[in-house]
Each structure stands twice: as C-alpha cells, then as structure tokens.
Amino acid sequence: MTLAAAAGTAAHATTATAAETHGFLSPTGVEIAFLLVGLVTLGAAVITVTTRQLVHAALWLVVALGGLAVEYLLLTAEFIAWVQVLIYVGSVVVLLLFGLMLTRAPIGRSPDADSGNRWVALAVSVAAAAALVWVVVDAFRTTWIDLDGAPAGSTEVTGASLFQHWVLPFEALSVLLLAALVGAIVLSRKAKADAATAPTTGTRRDTEGAR
Amino acid sequence: MTTTTLAVLVPLLPFLGAIAGLLLGRTAPGFVRPLAVLPTFVSLALAAVVAARQGGDGAVDAATELTPTGSVPVELALHVDGFAALTAVLVTLVAGCVQIYSTGYLRDDPRYPSYAALVSLFTSAMLLVVYSGDLMVLLVGWEVMGICSYFLVGHYWETPEARAASLKAFLVTKLGDVPFLIGLFALATDAGSFRITRILGAVANGGIEHPTLIALLLLAGVAGKSAQFPLHTWLPDAMAGPTPVSALIHAATMVAAGVYFVARLLPLFEASRAAMVVLAVMAAVTMAGSALAALAQDDIKRVLAYSTIGQLGYMTGALAVADRGAAVFHLLSHGAFKALLFLAAGVIIHAAGTNSLAAMSRMGHLRDRVPDAYWTMTVALLALAAIPPFSGFFSKEAVLGVAEHVVTGHTEHAPAAAGWIVLLAGLVTALFTAAYATRLWLLAFRGQGTEAPDHGRQPLTMTVVLWVLAVPSLAFGGLAFRVLPDWFDGQDLTPTLTTSVLGTGVALVGGIITYATWRHTTAHAASRVPLGAVAAHPEGDAGLVEAEAIASHEAAYGDIASAADPSDPGRLLLGPLHRHAAAGFHLDAVYTALFVRPVRAGASLVRFLDREVVETYVRGAGALPRWLGAAVRRAQTGNLQTYVSALLAGTVVLAVAVVLVATGA
Amino acid sequence: MHLAYPAVLSALLFCTGLYGVLARRNAILVLMSVELMLNAVNLNLVAFDVWLSRAAEETLHSGQALALFTIAIAAAEIGIGLAIVLAVYRNRGTSDIDRLRDTAEGHGGDGPDGDVPGGDAAATRAAAEKAEATA
After folding, report:
1. CB distance A38–C42 less than 8 Å?
2. Which of A29, B107, B578, C15 has its CB 3.0 to 4.6 Å from that of A125, i.e. a possible disulfide?
3. ipTM at complex level
C-alpha cells in the first residue's frame, strides 16, 4: 500500500470508508458504461497498432480517440472531452491522414506494415503492461471516485482554474505553439527549396543509383 | 704563484680551451687554431715550471673536500711527485706537437674544430690523471680519455672501419674498466680513503686485507687502457683514426695511463706476489706476441701500433719487477719516439698516398720526397730498436737491467720468477723489435720501382714537429739516465754491461737477419709482382689521403692487416707463423666466439621472445576486447526501434526492481 | 467509480501505444502510436484530477490543466513530426523507420538509394512529383 499512500494520503480516510461500501462485484451504471466504452477504446487502439491497412489504422485511431472522449464525459470532464474531439479527432487525425497520403502510403493491405522488431516489441509491451497493471491495481483497488455533485471538469470550472492559476503556463504554451508553427513552416519551406532544385538532385540520385 | 696553483692550471687550461673550441667552432672558425694550440703550450710551460720547482724533492700535496660524499670521502686532491711532474711535461709536449701537426694534417677537414677541442679535452683528462691525488678524480680523467678516444678514433666515421674500430676501442676498454671500478671500490673500502697517499700509507702498514684480489681487478682496467694481453685487440684497429690521434692517444699518453697508474700504486701490487707474477706473464706474452704480429703487418700504422703494445709490455715488465723508475723512464722516452714515429708515418702516408708497406716497397725514391720524415723516422726506429746511443737504448736497458737485478736476487720487492720471465721475453722481443723496425725502414724507404708521386714539400707545421720530437728521441735517454733517479725512487738506471751487450747484440742480430732476408727476397726481381693501390685524391690534405688509404686497404689487399706480398721479408722470416701473426694470433676470433656470438645469440633469443612470446600475450590481450567490440558493433544496427526496445526493456526491469524493493517483496 | 478502471485502461492503452511505437514500420503509424500513449496519459491525468478534486478538495485542477496542455503540445508535436516525416520522405523516398540506418556501424549507412530495392525509383518519382508541384 505504499504507492497508495504516496498517491494521496490526505484522501485515504474518506476513500477507505467509501471503498468498503462499493465492491467490484456490484458495479454502478457509470462503471458499466465506462467498462464497455473502455473495451471498445482498447480494441480500437489494438487494431490501430496491428492492422495492415494504413488508412484503416488512422480510422481506428479515430474510434479510439472518440472512445476516450466518451470516457472523459463519464468522468465528468466535459471541457476536456470536447477539446479531445475537436483537436484530436478533428485535426490530428486529419493531419495524419494527409501525412499518409503525402508519403504515398499504399491503400489496402501492405504486408510489411510491421517491422522485424515485432516480437521484441510485443514482449516489451506485454511486460510493461503487466508491470503497470499490477502496480496500478495493487495501489488503487480501494480508491473510489465520487462522481456525484457538480461536475469536476465543466467549462466554467476549467476556465476559472485555467485563467486563475495557470495563466503563465498557458501563455508559455502559446509561445510553444507559435514556435511549432514556425518550425513546421520552416521544414516545409526547406522542402520547397529542395523541390526547386529537384531535377538536378534527381539526376544525381540517378547516377548514384547507377553506380 | 705557488706550485699548487700552477699545477691546477695545467689540466685546467686545455679543458677551457676545449670548451671554448666547442662553443666557438662554428661561429668563429678563426679562433679554433689558436684555441687549440695556445692552451696546450701554456700548459707545457706551466708543467715545465712545476717540474722545475718540484725538482724531484718531496711530493707536492694539496687537497680540498668539496662536499661530504658518504663513508669514503672524495677529495679534489693534487699529488705531484717526480713521476707526475715529468709525465705531465711529456704529455703536454706531445699534445702540443700533435696540435701543431694537426693544423697542417687536417688543414681542410670540416670537422677540425670538434677534433681539436676533443684533443684538448683529452689532454686535459690525461693531465688530470697524471696530477690527481685522489683515485675517484683520477677515474674521471680515465673515463673522459676513454670517451675522447672513442670520438677521435671514429673521426672518419664515414668509413665502416673507423666506426667498428671506435666501438671496439670503447667496448674493450670498458670491459677492463668494470673490474677496475670494482677494484677501486674494494681498495677504498680497505684503505678507508681514495687518496693515493693514504692508500699507500695503508699498504705500508699492512692495512689492505685483499691485496691480490684488488691488484688483479685493477690490472684488468690497466690491461684495457694500456693495451696489454688479452685486452690489447682494440689498439691495432684504432689506427683507423687520424695519425695525430694515433700519435697522441695510442702511443704517447692514454695507453701510458695504465702503466702510470700501476707505477703510482706499485707498493700495492708489490704486496701481492701473485699479482706481480701475473703482471710479468702479461707483459711477456704481450711483448713477444705483439713483436711477432708487428713483423707481419702491412699497414705501416698497424706495425707501429703493435710495436706500441710491445713497448708498453716492457713498461709493465719493469713494473712486474718492481721498478717504477725504469717503467716511467721507458714511458717518457717511448712517448717521445713513438709520437715521432706516428707523425712521420703520417707524412709518409700522405706522400705515398697509401698506408701499405707492400705498395711503398714498390716506389722508388720515396725518401727523397720526404727527407724530414726519412731522417727523423730513422732516428726513431733506431731508438725503438734500442741501438745506442739513442734514448730507447737507455730506457730499455734500464728495464732489462732491473730484470737481471731481480733474477740475480738483489731485491726482495719482486719474485725471481717474474724477473726471469721479463728478462727472457725482453731479450726475445728486442730481437723481433729490431727485425720489424728494420723491415719497416727497408720497405718504406728502400723501395724500388716506379717513382713515388711528387706532391711538393710537406706543410711546415708537420715537418718542424718531427725535428722537435727527434731531439728527445735522440738524446733524452743518454742525458737523463743519471739525473732521473733523483726524481724517481732513487734506483740506479744506468745500463749494466751484461744486459747492454746482450740487448744490443740481439737487436743487431735481428736487424742483420732482416736485412739479409730483404736482400734475398728483393734479389728475385721476377717475383716482384705489381701490387698496390694509391689514394684517389693524392693532392688532398693528409687527413683525406689517409682516410682513403685506410678505406681502400681491405678492398685492395683482401685484409685490413696484411698484404699478399711475396717479397716481404717478414713473410720469409716468420714462415708458417706469418698467417697467424698477421691476424693478431686470432685473438679477435676468440673474442668473437667467446663474447660476440653469445651476445648475438642472446639478442636473437630476446628478439624471438619479444616478437613471438611477449607479442602473443599482447595480441591475446587485445583479442578479447576486439571480440567484445565486434559483438557490440553487431548490435549497432542503426535501427532506432531496436535501440528503443532495449531501452524500454531495461526501464521495465528497473521499474519492477524498484517496486519490488520499495514494497519489500 | 473505482479509480482502478480508468487507471488500468490508461496503462493498457499506454502499452498498446508502446507496442505500436516499437513494432510499426511506417513513421506515420509510429506517430499515431505516440498519440495513443499521450492520450493514455491524458486519461490518467483527468481521472486523478477528478478523484482529487472531490476527495481532497483540491481546487487547482492541475490534472485537467495539464491534460489540456498535453493536448496542445501533442497537436504541435504532430505538426512538427509530420513535417519531419515528409521532409525525410522527400529526401529519401521512404518513410520506413527501419530503413533510416545512417547511424549503423560498419556498412556506411544506406543512403537514399543504398540497398533499398525500388528506393531509387521512389526517389525519382518523388523528384518528378516535386518538379511538377513547383511547375
């Protein structure tokens, strides 16, 4: 129980009493919904990392991210859920799809979607999963989240805390986004400069290939 | 100035001259010659003043201890007695003559500055040996002489003969110097001091516990330095150096240092009868063997080198019969006439363009080309052969007289056996000495055949010196034998009738037999096959001619020492011995078998061990890391996913370990 | 709700993403897997924030704020990452991670057309395409 103590000693007294009243064998409705959506999310994620069709992977990623948004809703974090839908499902996945197309990813089953490192990767991730799940379950099996009352992540609450307590990081983050924007543009501009000299580089590559 | 100050200045001046010569040799070539000649002559004058003031009275002793040096103190000590004073005069005289001679002999030599500086340094070291009253200080001069000899013998280092000869001279003398050093330490331990006076006092009181051991150890060093059997082999080869070097180092001074050393410590050697007998046997073998070898040599300088060994044998013989007066008397007169012989030989080699007696005997009128060398060399050869009234006669008769004295039992200082050995060997050697002196004279000056090349007159610096040295060769013995006992131990040096008649008789016999043989061999004119090689640049300066002559001797005659000349009287006289005598009785071969081959075999063994055994271990030590490196390199595939997999696997392991430790499982 | 549910789901999602990062060949698929991992972290942050905001009356909402920041940073990361992947693809003619082995020891690294069969053709195709784009 060391980890539980480390995670939140202050909350221990209340959760201990709450956990006694809430067993794992008598789930509430929210828990059932969370479990079902979680299974879908996990399944979609697994398919994302295993499918041989690259575009399908992106689409299954949408399912997984959407499932996560539902989970946020179930955890009463509304604002995060909508942000998740907006940014991830709306823009990131679209970006990824653009990337797939721009790199001429093959449509349909590609036999070499996985590298030769697959079995090592499987072993490492299964070991990591076992270790994490063991630790997490061991630490938090009695911890109870009280979801009743006012939602913990409504837009009002989140906005208040963000602009009361987190203004400075928020502004710093905007600078970071700006830097990322500039960086992305610079990288693409370089590619355009390359494209201007593409014929010469192409022939050079041809001669190298001939060698 | 006091006598002590003057005596200190005597070795110091040539030393300063040498330093200045080395420093200024390149920047101010004009000063090199004055810097070489003047300090030596000032030293000569000072040494003469010291000798005059000392005058054979009590020894001048002075000492100062610079710093405490452990249990046995080393002091800067001066001990000038009659021996030291006269020997210093001889050394400075010969050195001065050689310096003047060198200015002409090495006129165009580019390395003359360093040569002259080394000669000055050598002179200084020899004077240090002569005047020193402390054995450690004496050893300093002794070793400096050795290294100077190495450099000067190797003056013509372009020729392989000179390189080999300089190395040989250095190594062989060092072979003797190692036991010499041990002997010095043993002596100082027994006597409690390095001071000669205290050591002699300890000897007189019987304070030396191991006289035989010490004397034998010291004798090894003496044999190396004074070229006595069996360590004499370096001297004939050292003739690859320039002639003035041979005259100064290998005739008059350095080789005399060993004799002088024994003369200084003679009471110590007298304390051991075994050492005296060993000394006598050494002297006898050296005398007789070197005289035979000299008769077979073809190179004029090698003849003189072997004769030097023989005359040094006379000196050690005199020491073996416990008369240092006779030994130093012979040292002085021999120093004069042997220096003269070498310098005259240098002139002859220059004039003839060859150092081969066989080639000279095929030249007519060589003596007319070099009249100064002819006359002075005749005087010196007569002195060498001990014909009265030349100085060699008196000194050699002094030796033989003392030996006879011992044989007839008039002294208790030396065993009679030593007397017999020295006397008989001395008489036999006198016969051969006269024989090879006559042979040398006949072959060099009475040659018949094509006219000798005419190079004009020899440089004045070279000929004047010959006459300067001819005076003591002619008259020193006769004038000095009555005066010298006052300077020495007081023993009579007057020739006795018996030995005089015997010695002169055998010498005359030897000369006459050689002459007859020579007449016999030259009578067969048909047998005078053409022979000989002459230097390629006869117009060059004398040093260049000599270097070429030495370098071409082996190429022209097949051997560095002898020539296949059927008209050589030495060949007829020696008969079947000639072949062995020419090779120095194969002592070099013995050394090769005893030392050179084992050392080479050891070296190749070490090389084998290093290359094969040690290197295998080194390679083996390198192989394991190399294999490990290859294995690690195989992991560097460049595939990032592999790297990250390994990284995360390690992270998981560490995390699990941390959790297990934290929960105490 | 038991905190164990979101925590376990987050751990499993994270390891799924981990597998994808380690096993996928295409660089864009790797980026997707990275997104999965980031989302797993977000889920953790939100769940713990909700728990702590109730149980300990923690009013800072640091978990949700951090989740928002993570989302923003993930968006930036995906933009930069895709730009890099595209640049690599233009230069090399491939976006396969296990063919970008310039750091390999020994065999001098495979350049754009090293031992990749068809890589040369892809490169020329890309070059032609770029030429068209500029024209």
Report:
1. no
2. C15
3. 0.78
